[in-house]
Structure formats: structure tokens, C-alpha cells
Amino acid sequence: MEWVGVDPLHQVVSRDEAMELIPWLSMRWQASPPESGHYFWWDDDGLALKSAALDSRSSLHIDFVHGAQARRVKAVTGEALTRAMGCQKGLRPSIVDTTAGLGGDLSVLANVGCDVFAMERHPIVAALLQDALRRAQEAGASWCERLQFRHADSAERVSHVSHGVIYLDPMFPKERKAAPSLSMQVLHSLDQTTDDPERLLEAALDSGAARVVVKRPIKADVLGGRVPSSQVKAKTVRFDLYPKRKLTDDDCASFHGVMDA
Ligand SMILES: C[S@@+](CC[C@H](N)C(=O)[O-])C[C@H]1O[C@@H](n2cnc3c(N)ncnc32)[C@H](O)[C@@H]1O
What's the pTM value of the predicted model, to 2 decimals? Predict the structure, then answer.
């Protein structure tokens, strides 16, 4: 499928360099927005997604260098997420993030010192994340060195996991009230491919990971009827823990060369 890209400033060199990292998107570039549908936008802030049906200020754009996510990455040391993963003094387990999404959780985990291998299946979300990671790396974010990212279906790769923690953060059930931000309006207007988080959880539990962690809305049922051994609770979400063995130093080894085998 060919996507429409809008590059009003005609920044061909920087644009084409960035797009080399996103080979899964075929793009037809033009100078002004189309009259209907979603389109990509390219400017000095990198790649964003907009919708002709929404206000042109609405855009889905990931930014680890400025704004709220940058502040969250810098601030976090002991939030529920890192506790759920088993981070403690002297132990930073390696993590396979099977549902990378907008990269909020993976950036926090890599920043506290975990080696992270992350996958995102949706081509548009994966493109926006890949470009945001490029910009973070160019801005000198050292946590990017601990991160490997792939546009991939993680259900096809979790069986390769031999150690560390597998993290699942599937889309919340539909009845959850829609998030109000402009970026979320665009995200919710995208066609999401059918989620099958139960299958992902079963594959994760069958792998060699020491622990599987699932993020759920605080009041939601457990995923796939699988009762966790324990839970770490935050205000609106909780993390269901499925430990298979005690985490050791071996679970902090990098995933280099393991997950692409
Ligand atoms: C709720 S979001 C994850 C949010 C993420 N934890 C964050 O902090 O931004 C869920 C994401 O998982 C992706 N996803 C669902 N199943 C997947 C799979 N089997 N492989 C890769 N990505 C998947 C969806 O496309 C979606 O972008």
C-alpha cells in the first residue's frame, strides 16, 4: 500500500535519510495535504501522522526529547512498571517488550538500565516510533544504546526468548473511555489490526523467560483467564505477574543476536 507523505518545506535529503530506516512504508510525497484520509507529515520535528478529517493541529507524533514523555523518562526511578519487571538494587533484567506502541514504557525501562528488545506490529505506529528513536539517538539519549527495535509481530518471536522478562501491554478493552489528547484522537481513528493478546500470553508463558508481566486496566479481568501469582498496582492500571523462576544475573544479559535468529 502506498501512503501519502506531505513535505511542505521540501526537505528531501533529511526526509529520505530518515525514511531509509522505515523500509516497510511506501510513500508518495507531495507539498500539500490531501483532501481525505490519513497522511504523514514531515518537518524539522521529524515524522508525524495526521488525518484530513481532523483539525490539522491534531497529529500523532512521538517525542522522547521534549515534552511529557521526555519528562517521564527522566523522572522515573521506582514506578510500578519498573517494580513489576523486577528491577531492584543491582538487578536490571533484560526485557522483551512485545507491544511497543508509542514507546512510553520501553523508554522508561531502557533509561533505568534494562536491555530492551521491542517489537511493534502496526506499520504506522512502528514508523512513528522508529523515527522518534532516531531523533532521540541524534539528541544523545544514552538509553537508546540499550534498545533494539523491530517492526514485527512479537507472537512469531517470543519462542526465541531464553531469559529475562516478557512484557505485554495489549490495547485496553474498547469500553475504556477514549483518551482526550489530539494524538490519541488520531491513534483511535486508525484501523487497528485484530489483537490476540491471549495467544501472545500463552506463547510468552511457554518461552524461556523468567517472568511474564501483563499490564491491565485496574479493574479488568485477568488476561485469558490466567490467574497471576501477584500484582503491582498503580492508580489506573495494574501489572499482573507470572513468575516462572527467580530472576538472576543471567536474566540481565543482552538480547543481541538472540531474537532475530
Ligand atoms: C497499548 S499499546 C502499547 C503501549 C506501550 N506500552 C507504550 O508505553 O506506549 C499496544 C500496542 O501493541 C501492538 N501490538 C499488539 N499485538 C502485537 C503483536 N503481536 N506484536 C507486536 N505488536 C503488537 C499494537 O499495535 C499497539 O500499538
Answer: 0.93
If you measure from the C-alpha of residue 109 to the centroid of ligand 1, how many angstroms do you get, rounded to a whole number?
A: 16
**What residue ranges do the domains of the chain occupy?**
2-51, 67-252
Residue nearest to atom 14 of ligand 1 (CA): 99
- As a whole number of angstroms, the distance between CA 189 and CA 245 comes to 41
Residues 254, 62, 131, 70, Cα dihedral to 10°: -50
Q: Is 161 left (phi over 0), alpha (psi -120 to 50) or beta?
A: beta
Q: What is the mean pLDDT of each run of 10 residues along the chain (261 residues)?
A: 94 96 96 94 95 86 86 74 94 97 94 96 94 97 96 93 96 59 61 76 97 96 96 95 97 90 72
CATH topology for the 67-252 domain: Rossmann fold (3.40.50)
Nearest CA to ligand 1 atom 1: 171
C-alpha of residue 77 to centroid of ligand 1, in Å: 23
Residue 181: the pLDDT is 58
> Residue 72's pLDDT is what?
73
State the distance from the centre of ligand 1 to the C-alpha of 170, rounded, in angstroms.
6
